[in-house]
Amino acid sequence: MEIKVLGPGCPKCHALEKAVQEVLSETGINAEVKKITDIKQIASHGIMLTPGLIINGKIKSSGKALNKNEVKKFIEQEK
User: Fold this and answer.
1) Three-class HEC string of 8-52
2) Annotated catalytic, 10?
3) Where does the chain cross the membrane (predicted)?
4) 27-60 pLDDT, tens digit each
5) Of the residues 13, 20, 24, 47, which is catalytic?
6) All structural domains of the chain with their residue ranges
7) Is 66 part of the annotated catalytic residue set?
């Protein structure tokens, strides 16, 4: 599983990355997590509002700091 957290480094972006890491740790799901901070790369993924969450190439969220339950739901949909 590949998970991308997209954002320039704002507090919401850090919160989303932390939620992703916590869900993976709690569930034991193996995933490669990539943090993308470059604005041009973020836009090239189709994300116009950050933070963004992409799992296995599918945009799951844009412009919203998800809580752990929301992140867990999206990760479980893709496993």
Assistant:
1) CCCHHHHHHHHHHHHHHHHHCCCCEEEEECCHHHHHHCCCCCCCE
2) yes
3) none
4) 999 999 999 999 999 999 999 999 999 999 999 9
5) 13
6) 2-78
7) no
**65: pLDDT confidence band, cut at 50, 70 and 90?**
confident
The whole-model pTM stands at 0.94
Superfamily of domain covering 2-78: Glutaredoxin (3.40.30.10)
Residues 23-27: what's their mean pLDDT? 96
Spatial CB neighbours of 44, under 8 Å, sequence gap ≥ 6: none
Q: Which two tokens stand for residue 17?
A: 């990355």
The single residue listed with the structure tokens 């740790």 is 25
